[in-house]
């Protein structure tokens, strides 16, 4: 009750109306932020005044998101323009690139609609702003899981992605987006803390703590699933070292280590903040006031994914150079028609994908480098 009084008596009028009728209440965000941040209205006004300019952190994040957009756009163009990349693995990589591109775009929009502009929004606009970022970031995480599943199947099963089995790939991609949209859309549907102030998140003041805990649980399960899948891949590679050359086996192990290391490094701090947010208030967990830094760091994963998943393909690197050449970035006086020269050879990833699409024997023998 003391916190409600700090919010200058705005708690009672808010709870008198139905939840959905509050979606266009322009005073609601002020009162909920004052409550969640443990501020008086006067303190909140000071914060709003101080946030009218972009901070150094915001500028850094905008630059990072611009890089994310450009490099993932480059991946999408490379996959679309070269028919050699029209295979299961590269479609998954393209899906990951699209989700990361959307994550970068959503985060830039979030930055320019945050700060003092947050308090110019009505709740439905706030839900769209945050929900879009959640959908994009969730899609990126689910895409990582889809790639882990595909890679595991690729080295343990046969004839998975033949011409008559591509529906499996598109179903997996479709499930990734449907699940992400549902996950990010739950608050605007009704799983929020409007009319229930004690349940409000300190980091995202219109979100329910129970929803935050649910999201953390889902993402933690995804992380655990990815770890299990890659551990299985690691064990399979180790068990087949006598039949595979040392270099490909170590290349696979190195890729797995990079994937797991970067994913955990980027997402674990954000998961920790969200877990703290679901269990304590900002007055007892001061680090919650720095949550923006941790979410910005998690976004770094979207910038690193193209490096991990595509630049380890020799042909993809060549295609990047051709795209940049066509854009005039790396032309250096060379004839423009050279940009359109088709690739002459296949990388280990493309070679293994095409070679074993219709194979009827296990592919672990000579495809340990399909990463």
From TrEMBL:
Residues 71-309 form the G-protein coupled receptors family 1 profile domain. Disulfide bonds join 193-200, 280-285. One of its GO terms (cellular component) is plasma membrane. It is a multi-pass membrane protein. Keywords: Cell membrane, Disulfide bond, G-protein coupled receptor, Glycoprotein, Membrane, Receptor, Transducer, Transmembrane, Transmembrane helix. The chain crosses the membrane at residues 57-78, 90-113, 133-149, 170-191, 211-237, 249-273, 293-311. It is found in: Cell membrane. GO terms for biological process: anterior lateral line neuromast hair cell development; cardioblast migration to the midline involved in heart rudiment formation; cell migration involved in gastrulation; convergent extension involved in gastrulation; embryonic heart tube morphogenesis; embryonic viscerocranium morphogenesis; endoderm development; mesodermal cell migration. One of its GO terms (molecular function) is sphingosine-1-phosphate receptor activity. Pfam families: 7tm_1 (PF00001). Belongs to the G-protein coupled receptor 1 family. This is G-protein coupled receptors family 1 profile domain-containing protein. The gene is S1PR2.
